[in-house]
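Propose amino acids for all 289 sites.
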């Protein structure tokens, strides 16, 4: 199905190029229309508005056209493993390492980080506000029977959440208090707010949507809540039809000084603090991976 969608996308781009030539533009200009790069990424980079800022700059600098598919990191990597994407921007380190070990990617580069937070209603029925350990907070939510809203989509956020349940030794699957949305981060936060429940969120998406949610940050700062993003180039030997040049150009752009400077200040004017922290060129060990 995804291959069909990719072919349909490229057919549409080719048609656009033909129409461009018919309208009097040069062949070189039409060729730019054909330079499509399929980016599979996590919903947090989309929901925060970061890609809305970065992609137009990339397109203007390179002439490539970016088709963004915002899904969970797990789905993004599944697309990459099937040759249905040219470049990945994801935040699920363990799954990323397996993706590379399976020969699906040729280079994985550190881009940025923020952190996960546990959010919930101001009334905090489970009484977790201010707790220092995410595992203990999860235990308390479970013990109280308070509803926890999971993304349930194999995204980087969902994987992190399952890691926390496991680390705390909590049985959650099949429990009445444990519910799954199957949605992206922004939509899951909206459901959590509507139902006045708890969830795990990345800080960037929460801050971007905070105004209309009515949810408080209740637990933060634990080392297990670190949230790290990498850009991965799909292996052209495995998928020769992938736009490797375009994917590499996007990866280079994401770790460039210009982009890292934008990331460093993104969100400061609106939220009082950046939504992400740039990490290109750093050692992963320095971030506690």
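Proposal:
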């Amino acid at each position: 199905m995804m291959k069909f969608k990719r072919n349909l996308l490229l057919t549409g781009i080719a048609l656009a190029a033909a129409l461009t030539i018919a309208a009097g533009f040069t062949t070189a200009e039409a060729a730019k229309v054909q330079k499509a790069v399929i980016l599979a990424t996590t919903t947090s980079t989309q929901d925060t508005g970061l890609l809305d800022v970065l992609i137009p700059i990339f397109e203007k600098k390179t002439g490539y056209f970016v088709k963004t598919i915002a899904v969970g990191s797990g789905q993004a990597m599944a697309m990459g493993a099937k040759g249905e994407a040219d470049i990945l921007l994801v935040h699920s380190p363990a799954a990323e390492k397996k993706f590379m070990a399976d020969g699906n990617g040729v280079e994985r580069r550190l881009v940025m980080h923020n952190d996960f937070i546990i959010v919930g209603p101001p009334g905090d029925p489970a009484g977790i506000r201010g707790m220092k350990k995410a595992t203990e907070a999860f235990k308390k939510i479970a013990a109280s029977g308070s509803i926890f809203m999971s993304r349930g989509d194999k995204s980087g956020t969902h994987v992190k959440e399952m890691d926390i349940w496991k680390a705390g030794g909590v049985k959650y699957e099949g429990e009445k208090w444990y519910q799954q949305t199957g949605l992206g981060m922004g939509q899951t936060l909206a459901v959590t707010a509507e139902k006045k429940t708890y969830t795990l969120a990345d800080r960037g998406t929460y801050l971007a949507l905070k105004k209309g949610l009515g949810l408080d940050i209740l637990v933060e700062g634990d080392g297990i809540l670190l949230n790290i993003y990498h850009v991965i180039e799909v292996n052209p030997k495995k998928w020769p039809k992938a736009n490797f040049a375009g994917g590499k150009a996007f990866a280079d752009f994401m770790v460039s000084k210009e982009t890292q400077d934008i990331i460093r200040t993104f969100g400061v004017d609106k939220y009082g603090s950046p939504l992400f922290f740039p990490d290109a060129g750093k050692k992963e060990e320095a971030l506690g991976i």
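The domain at 115-225 is CATH 3.40.190.10 (D-Maltodextrin-Binding Protein; domain 2). The beta strands are 36-41, 65-70, 87-90, 105-120, 148-150, 178-180, 199-202, 216-219, 226-234, 277-278.
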